[in-house]
Recover the amino acids of this structure.
């Protein structure tokens, strides 16, 4: 029962400074709005197929003009050029390839053929050749009404919709959540250092309440505070931005090991450095690095495959990817991996912080204050 009383005391301490709690909620809420609006174009579910511009070497006859004009409906824009000039464009990389249209047919020249331009030229070339053959057969049969090639906007170019994907707001509604919980490491360190700053450490040391109980109560309160902030932030994001979390209760439950990890990291940093200011400086570096590697600021998959692999080996990266997979695809496997990694690391760091805390009598720094 004493530990519950101490937790109640810690909750009163937390509520006595509501401005810091409010900042921990409003900061990621506002940042979600800024990043969600700024990067909305990078999270489009359907990417339009790009138009392709290529040089063409042609004789300028009726057949060439038809070939060039009909290509526009397929997203191909041909620009007339001499063969030497076209070859130079391919060599210097300003063009992926060039087309030659002569009596031998349609020829595509390129240094590499496994590209989008080559696929589009081959496809369009086959279609045009089939139309030309049909027109020739119609002419030989006297069907002049069938000679003209078919044209018009019969094909609409769109990318492939791969199913439910997060919008920019959906993405940052998750990454800002995990980011601000990481910044909760400094909140945990400050809460543990509170007895020194308020000069109540000596009284606690002289009281019948065990210092292990003090450590446990502060750790539990810190975890509960992080989870409460996460819940409020998710509710605000849902109401204001329409962000979905699939099942908010399950998401909050899955964040418990992550909150333990964030709390333990802050406590371990405090015990290793000896004071809250030094711990805060160290944590600022560690948190920024982990959040960046985890894709908290920008999706690291877009930056480098190496960074994408590193993200999968950090608690932040696993949680970001795991929550996205669970919310938008119903796949919880990566989220479970993140929970296991965070839980194990959190337990190790918490045990380390507890050993260091007890080794110094629980309040040596308070005695020096």
């Amino acid at each position: 029962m004493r530990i519950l009383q101490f937790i109640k005391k810690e909750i009163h301490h937390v509520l006595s400074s509501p401005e810091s709690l409010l900042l921990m909620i409003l900061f990621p809420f506002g940042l979600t709005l800024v990043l969600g609006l700024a990067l909305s174009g990078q999270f489009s579910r359907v990417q339009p197929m790009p138009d392709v511009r290529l040089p063409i070497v042609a004789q300028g006859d009726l057949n060439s003009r038809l070939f060039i004009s009909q290509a526009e409906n397929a997203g191909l824009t041909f620009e007339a050029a001499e063969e030497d000039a076209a070859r130079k464009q391919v060599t210097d990389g300003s063009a992926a390839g060039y087309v030659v249209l002569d009596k031998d047919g349609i020829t595509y020249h390129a240094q590499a053929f496994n590209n989008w331009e080559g696929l589009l030229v081959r496809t369009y070339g086959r279609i045009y050749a089939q139309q030309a053959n049909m027109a020739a057969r119609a002419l030989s049969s006297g069907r002049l009404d069938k000679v003209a090639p078919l044209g018009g906007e019969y094909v609409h170019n769109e990318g492939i919709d791969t199913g439910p994907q997060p919008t920019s707001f959906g993405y940052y509604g998750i990454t800002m959540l995990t980011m601000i919980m990481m910044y909760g490491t400094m909140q945990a360190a400050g809460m543990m250092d509170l007895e020194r700053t308020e000069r109540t450490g000596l009284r606690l040391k002289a009281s019948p309440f065990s210092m292990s109980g003090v450590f446990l109560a502060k750790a539990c309160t810190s975890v509960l505070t992080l989870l409460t902030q996460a819940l409020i932030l998710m509710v605000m994001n849902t109401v204001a931005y329409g962000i979905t979390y699939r099942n908010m209760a399950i998401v909050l439950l899955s964040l418990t090991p992550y909150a333990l990890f964030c709390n333990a990291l802050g406590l371990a940093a405090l015990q290793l450095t000896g004071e809250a200011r030094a711990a805060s400086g160290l944590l600022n570096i560690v948190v920024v690095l982990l959040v960046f590697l985890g894709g908290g600021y920008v999706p690291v998959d877009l930056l480098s495959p190496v960074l994408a692999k590193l993200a999968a080996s950090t608690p932040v990266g696993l949680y970001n990817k795991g929550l996205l997979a669970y919310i938008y695809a119903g796949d919880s496997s990566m989220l479970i991996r993140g929970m296991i990694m965070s839980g194990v690391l959190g337990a190790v760091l918490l045990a380390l912080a507890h050993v260091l805390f007890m080794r110094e009598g629980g309040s040596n720094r308070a005695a020096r204050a």
